[in-house]
Design brief:
Layout lengths: L2 H7 L4 H15 L11 H11 L4 H14 L3 H6 L2 H8 L6 H16 L8 H4 L7 H12 L8 H10 L11 H12 L5 H14 L18 H5 L15 E11 L5 E5 L10 E2 L2 E3 L7 H13 L3 E13 L3 E12 L9 E4 L11 H13 L4
Parallel strand pairs: 1-6
Antiparallel strand pairs: 1-4, 2-3, 2-7, 5-6
The chain binds a DNA duplex through helix 3, helix 4, helix 7, helix 9 and helix 10.
Length: 368
DNA sequence: AATCCGTGGCC
DNA sequence: TGGCCAAGGAT
């Protein structure tokens, strides 16, 4: 065992801790839709949805997703547009592209059975160390650490770990600790219980230590420093980007939409035509008209703006001004540039800001 | 190692 | 109101 891990675990009452933690989980765990059974496919989908995403947000998506794609094969065979549409609004869209590719891989290479070995499962797209441990322990009872933000917070307090959890190497330290204290008989409940404790009791601010089932094991509580842990140094620096967009219709009332690039921000989602505004140049309206002519070969006539909105990402802010517009020229439709009827808009997956654009547009009328 | 990649809720 | 936060992974 790693020397550093050994120092943290020394003198820790592993058996008692496991009992206190798991018996609490058996009594207090929430009734969640992905806890009905241990179907590896369902566990996997839930874990991908839960990456950086709250339980309350995931629940309705999970229900809908399982109705549409009840089995791994159903998802593997599903149309890409429908899969993306089922993810609309969940964020981090590369997750679903990777999951779809990974599920196809499982169907082809493993006969549709989710592999139960670390070396195989962890190689699948979108599957990192956390997801590997979570799926293999919960679905197959394999004693692998599943170290997420909850677990790092809980363990940093219990073992008084002052290492910065925003550093890449710190997760490995916690994996080492978990390997020493995990319940080999019930790794599923052990891992879930650590996360559940982090979600219900050992929360970031004002943890409910007086209700904590493992209070007696917690070194931070013993020293009264639980509020100072975990240590996170990194601060978010967001930049702002002005965007000019337009809802453009032709004389038949069809709406111009564009599919974003397959990589990067909001990959493969649809959007209303837009571009970044460059300062010290023509006005935004003219910039977008030029952009659409040069990039899409479409001549449009933009009129007045009807909405201004903000789209806040984790690392970026779009300040969007939206214009009414009409198509002047002919248009060559492609895979990524389409004219669609208004009632077809709902079949395409848009980022939230563009959903709002459409909502505003319908509310204020198609005037121009 | 440092950045990029969504969204909504909270205090 | 705005910064922080949430069951991470890819590059």
């Amino acid at each position: 065992m790693n020397e550093k891990v050994k120092r943290f675990v020394e003198g820790f009452l592993i058996d008692t801790f496991q009992r206190d933690l798991i018996s609490w989980f058996e009594k207090e765990q929430r009734d969640l839709p992905w806890r009905k059974d241990t179907d590896p496919y369902k566990i996997w989908v839930s874990e991908v949805m839960l990456q950086q995403t709250r339980v309350e947000t995931v629940i309705p998506y999970f229900h809908h997703f399982m109705e549409q794609f009840p089995t791994l094969e159903a998802l593997a065979d599903a149309d890409e547009e429908k899969v993306l549409k089922a993810w609309e609004g969940l964020g981090y869209y590369s997750r679903i592209r990777n999951l779809h590719a990974a599920v196809k891989e499982v169907k082809e290479r493993y006969g549709g059975k989710v592999p139960n070995r670390v070396e195989e499962f962890s190689k699948l797209k979108g599957v990192g160390p956390y997801t590997t441990g979570a799926v293999l322990s919960i679905a197959y009872g394999i004693p692998e650490p599943a170290v997420d933000g909850n677990v790092m917070r809980v363990l940093s307090r219990i073992f008084l770990v002052w290492d910065d959890i925003t550093k890449a190497g710190t997760r490995k330290l916690f994996e080492g600790i978990v390997r020493e204290i995990i319940d080999e008989e019930n790794p599923s409940y052990f891992n879930q219980a650590l996360m559940e404790l982090g979600a219900l009791i050992c929360i970031p601010r004002n943890p409910a230590c007086l209700l904590c089932p493992v209070q007696a094991h917690c070194r931070a509580f013993h020293e009264g420093v639980q509020g100072e842990l975990p240590v996170k140094t990194k601060k978010t620096n967001v930049r702002e980007m002005p965007i000019v967009a337009a809802v453009v219709q032709n004389e038949c009332g069809k709406v111009l939409i564009h599919k974003r690039d397959s990589e990067g921000l909001l990959a493969n989602l649809w959007e209303f035509p837009n571009c970044e505004v460059v300062h010290s140049r023509e006005n935004p309206k003219t910039q977008l008209e030029i952009f659409l002519k040069e990039e899409y070969g479409v001549t449009v006539q933009l009129e007045q703006p009807f909405a201004a909105l903000e789209h806040v990402f984790s690392h970026l802010i779009w300040n969007i001004v939206v214009y009414y517009g009409k198509i002047v020229s002919d248009i060559v439709e492609t895979e990524r540039l389409k004219l669609v009827d208004e009632h077809e808009i709902s079949e395409y997956a848009f980022p939230v800001s563009h959903q709002r654009i459409w909502h505003e547009y319908k509310e204020k009328g198609t005037g121009g």
